[in-house]
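Posting this for the archive.
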Amino acid sequence: MARKALATQRKIRVLVAKPGLDGHDRGVLVLARALRDAGMEVIYSGLLPSPQEVAQMALDEDVDVVALSLLNGAHMTAFPKVKRLLEKQGGRDIIVVGGGIIPEEDKGRLRKLGITGLFGPGSSFEEIVEHIGARVRKERWKE
């Protein structure tokens, strides 16, 4: 269902990134492939970019979404820093979603910053694709 909806519009551009010191990339590479298979254009940051590099790459690549993933517990530092840098550098309208190992008690604070999704292990790709698509249609494309 998500694939059909995406096929009728321009492609959603997503930067997939693992900021900071998290070298576990298997999951994020599988996610990148799932997003691509759903009709999105995916840019992968490579391993270990700084939050500054992620924000600059998002601006340079003119993405709709930055999909952040961390498994090392640094989500309360790295995710908000990427969001702040985007806002400071003119990317206020770029959507930020997150995933990884994120304790429930941290999710509310991240959502208040505008970082949504917050998908953990076992989340379905369909759920992630639908969340990204819905946010882009509502916030970027104003449908």
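The domain at 2-136 is CATH 3.40.50.280 (Rossmann fold). The chain has a mean pLDDT of 91.
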